[in-house]
């Protein structure tokens, strides 16, 4: 009889099992996002050694700055999971799909969460069975503006511009939500989420029907669910945002925004589409973009183009785009980007038309 550890080949001859190299096995077991982060840092260290440690510092500083928002949003998502409120939320949104898009766009525009901090909330909504359409509306509107950014924008660019940006955030959310709903009616996005979302962010379909238990800490299982969800979501966000901020740091260190800004201010009739296209990858962050937009308008950039730059950049900045890609499959991700770009152009032209009639 052949040795139990050996399997016979087609001729009946025992074949010794292949032993995988331990290093290769460990490499395969490593998280792909962690590997990508390490490889990106190595590439920076080789290509620009003076930026290697500053990149790490930028990642750490960025994570520290958004830590309070992430902590609140992660705790909220874990609370929804532990209490069973996810089914309640899902049922409410499914029952009023049309109204849900409008509510999601408005709530997204006025929510205090940044494009990164909103990720666990999005995961919680997906977990509760909320349709993709209102989730898309919330996701597009949320990064464009928040209450604090609204005040800063009003202080630097004026209350009219701040109001226009707020309307733009809601409008972009509505465009995204209703466009996604239409695509779904036509048979698209039947399976839009990545498998990792189900395992890492708890975004699998939830079909529970029992009433939520708001005081979840009184039950061992629910306490365990709370900490497990918080731990998995925190790790998910930490690894994806680390590589997102690494890429953003490279962009800030190497993209001459002053030169690009001067060129953009002189593009004439193409200013709005070019502002949207350039704003998508070159956007720094919502607050840094405000004085930049002020400078660009002083150089002659149309207000509509400045608004398109800020709206497109806010929705598709590197952290926001990476977060969307981390949770969704490519078709939905590309739709997100397309809606953000096209929608910001429409908003830019609309703002210029509004100004041309002297409404502001």
Main beta sheet strand tally, sense and closure: 2 strands, antiparallel
Beta strand %: under 5%
Radius of gyration from the alpha-carbon trace, in angstroms: 23 Å
Give the topology string: H per helix, E per strand.
EEHHHHHHHHHHHHHHHHH
| Strand order across the largest sheet | 1-2
Mean pLDDT: 79
Overall outline: globular
Instruction: List the total number of helices.
Output: 17
Helix content: over 70%
Low-confidence stretches: 1-5, 196-208
**How many DSSP-defined strands?**
2
Terminal CA distance reads 90 Å
Summing up helix and strand content along with how strands pair, one would put the structural category as mainly alpha
Query: How many domain units?
Result: 1
Summary, kept brief:
The protein has 17 helices and 2 strands. The protein has 360 residues and is mostly helical.
Report on the structure:
The chain is mainly alpha-helical and 360 residues long. It has one domain (53-356). 73% of the residues lie in helices and 1% in strands. The protein has helices spanning 22-29, 32-47, 49-83, 85-95, 97-110, 119-127, 132-141, 147-157, 159-185, 195-200, 220-254, 257-264, 271-282, 289-298, 303-316, 318-327, 330-356, and strands spanning 7-8, 14-15. Strands 1-2 form a two-stranded antiparallel ribbon. The longest helix is centred in the N-terminal third of the chain and has 35 residues, at 49-83. It is globular and about 60 Å long. Residues 1-5 and 196-208 have low confidence and may be disordered.
């Amino acid at each position: 009889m052949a040795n139990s550890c050996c399997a016979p080949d087609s001729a009946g001859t025992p074949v010794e099992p292949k032993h995988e190299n331990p290093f290769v096995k460990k490499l395969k077991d490593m998280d792909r996002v962690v590997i990508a982060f390490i490889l990106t840092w190595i590439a920076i260290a080789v290509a620009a050694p003076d930026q290697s440690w500053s990149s790490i510092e930028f990642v750490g500083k960025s994570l520290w700055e958004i830590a309070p928002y992430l902590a609140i949003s992660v705790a909220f998502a874990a609370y929804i999971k532990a209490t069973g409120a996810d089914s309640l939320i899902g049922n409410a949104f499914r029952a009023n799909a049309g109204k849900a898009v409008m509510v999601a766009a408005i709530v997204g525009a006025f929510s205090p969460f940044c494009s990164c901090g909103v990720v666990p909330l999005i995961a919680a909504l997906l977990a509760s069975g909320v349709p993709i359409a209102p989730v898309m509306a919330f996701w597009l509107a949320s990064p464009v503006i928040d209450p604090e950014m609204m005040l800063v924008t009003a202080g630097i660019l004026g209350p009219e511009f701040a109001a226009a940006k707020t309307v733009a955030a809601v409008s972009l959310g509505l465009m995204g939500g209703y466009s996604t709903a239409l695509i779904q009616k036509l048979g698209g996005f039947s399976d839009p989420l990545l498998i990792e979302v189900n395992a890492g962010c708890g975004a699998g379909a939830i079909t529970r029907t029992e009433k939520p238990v708001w005081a979840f800490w009184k039950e061992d299982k629910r306490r365990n669910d709370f900490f497990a969800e918080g731990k998995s979501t925190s790790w998910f966000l930490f690894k994806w945002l680390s590589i997102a901020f690494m890429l953003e740091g490279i962009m800030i260190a190497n993209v001459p925004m002053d030169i690009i800004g001067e060129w953009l201010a002189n593009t004439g009739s193409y200013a709005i589409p070019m502002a949207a296209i350039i704003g998508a990858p070159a956007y720094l962050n919502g607050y840094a973009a405000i004085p930049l937009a002020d400078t660009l308008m002083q150089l002659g950039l149309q207000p509509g183009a400045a608004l398109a730059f800020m709206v497109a950049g806010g929705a598709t900045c590197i952290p926001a785009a990476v977060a969307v890609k981390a949770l969704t499959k490519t078709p939905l991700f590309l739709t997100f980007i397309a809606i953000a770009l096209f929608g910001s152009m429409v908003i830019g032209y609309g703002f210029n038309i509004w100004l041309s009639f002297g409404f502001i």
